[in-house]
Design goal:
Layout lengths: L5 E6 L10 E4 L5 E4 L9 E4 L2 E4 L5 E4 L8 E4 L6 H4 L1 E4 L10 E4 L11 E7 L5 E10 L2 E3 L7 E4 L12 E6 L11 E5 L2 E11 L2 E8 L2 E6 L2 E5 L5 E7 L4 E6 L11 E5 L2 E10 L2 E11 L4 E5 L3 E4 L3 E6 L16 E5 L13 E3 L4 H8 L4 H9 L2 E6 L10 E5 L13 E4 L6 H8 L8 H6 L2 E6 L10 E5 L13 E4 L6 H8 L8 H6 L2 E6 L7 E5 L13 E4 L6 H8 L8 H6 L2 E6 L1
Antiparallel strand pairs: 1-4, 1-13, 2-3, 4-5, 6-7, 8-9, 10-11, 11-12, 14-20, 15-16, 16-17, 16-20, 17-18, 18-19, 21-27, 22-23, 23-24, 23-27, 24-25, 25-26, 28-30, 29-30, 31-33, 32-33, 34-36, 35-36, 37-39, 38-39
Length: 584
Amino acid sequence: MDLTGEFYIENRKNSGGEGGIFLTASDGDEVSLKPMTESKEQLWRYNDGVIESVANGKVLTIYGPGSKAPILALPLDESNEECQKFYFKKNSDEEEDWVFIGQSVHLKEGFNGSKFFLYANPSDNHAPMTNYGSIENNKITNTNTEQKWRIIKPKTKEEAGESPFWWEPVKHFNSLGEHALVAGQDGGHPVYVSLVEWMKNMNVIGKIHRGECYVNLEGREVKIKDGDCTSKVLCVKPGANVQWIPAVDGKLPQNAIEGGEVDGKIEFVGRCFKENDAEIITPGRVIPDENIICFTWGGGRKQSVYDVLTIREGGEAGAAVPNLSNFKWSLIGKQPEDESFQVPTGWKLVEINEDLWFQVTSSLERSIADQMDEGSLSIMRKIEEPSAGGAEWIVVRRTSTSESFQVPAGYEVVQMDESNFGQYISQVQHLMDPSMAPGMESGLIKFAKKIEEPSRESPEWLWLSRKSTSYSFIVPAGYKVVQMDESNFDQYKSQVQHLIPPSWLPEVMSGLIQFARKMQSGNAPWIVVKRESLDDEFDVPSGYEIVLMDESNFGDYLPQVQHLMDPSMGPGMEGGFIKFAKKL
């Protein structure tokens, strides 16, 4: 019998199905028995012998002496303990979970008075009142069905289908479903969070990796086979706000996800790097009292540096922030006794300037942002070393401004200064450290970006953003910006609306976001043809023919040729020097 938190109190008479009746408070002092409404008026809480209404804060009170005394809800009166304090007792041979609710005064040593229990009077529309009973050999006797009650807990958000996460039963560990949360990685394979019922009232958080499930039990790694135990996998709704928050001094963030219960203690879902190995991130059991996470990797392990999982309903779409759950960016915590952050090998602490600060903290709970402000939390990013494929960005140096930068093949230096550095800061911040500042200011250190040519797999459309309309868009090679505003957006809506959330449309209309279309060549359906003089002929490639356009029909062709146009072409089009040709 669980008397913690809030609960409903159902009478045994007509219980089950739609006939169940429940103690119900009113706006006044009246207490009645009504069918389930799932309202606050039917919720109660129990503390120190007092049964309190969640709706109005009043407490159950026996109003008057003897049998058939009515039950009301009155303000707590410490001098009226005999009529306002109750106990719940279940007979050992009672079926299911039916209990009796008696006056706590019965239990006092030397009490010899009559014993009364809460009762639903069938002769008075089941009005709650008292009725006689006896206690013999620690068993309640001489009672009837209407004196039996049952505690029913309200459905959790998860049970009601309103939670952004749930625990999905698993029959086979190699078949988890599309909504299973990826909580880590190991050997290039995703790792998921499991919950295993090891024994009654003992649920243990573990991991599922490559179709196999493991839990840490008493410091040992235990493999769970399909069907061995009742097992579940943690799943999340699409769009849920999933954050892994570093634990600082054992303190849990808001919305920390409860997992198992071991030795009567609630444990929480967490993850950690295996002994600072940046390539292995694994979930485990967070035990707040001990400030540790227990996990498995080649045996049972534990450590004191870990993240705690929080899941909330999705936030505002389109927040311009690093993705803290894609294993390239992560929060990192510092314990009070540590002088510096313990950064795992292969990762680098990111110095957060004012621009990046707003981007990052806008996606976090206020309490987490405050910890960053205090210096107990920061952000780190995985170091991208140049490889056979090459990092997206690299640092290039020279010893004198009279020298050229040694730029590897496949890269080009991106010119940055005060006017545009804010556009690139989030892309190169992970490469920077304070010692580079003098070299960057003097022109001895710059950043080079990998040259990316569109391939056959390149998307047809891309979205681009800029800090303000005074800046130019950074357009990838092989693409061309298509100017869109309220006058023509509907023509392109079906082609680009999948690229952005609806909340970004104001930025499209204001010019802060635009779309670029891949430039066609070879078999392109449309091309631009030009001539230097009106006396010259257009050089039209074989297989194409010029389409004559003027004010009367240009609107019909605009959606097909807009991606080929830019504002500089206006005079040439009006003067007859530029036309469009269509493939035959």
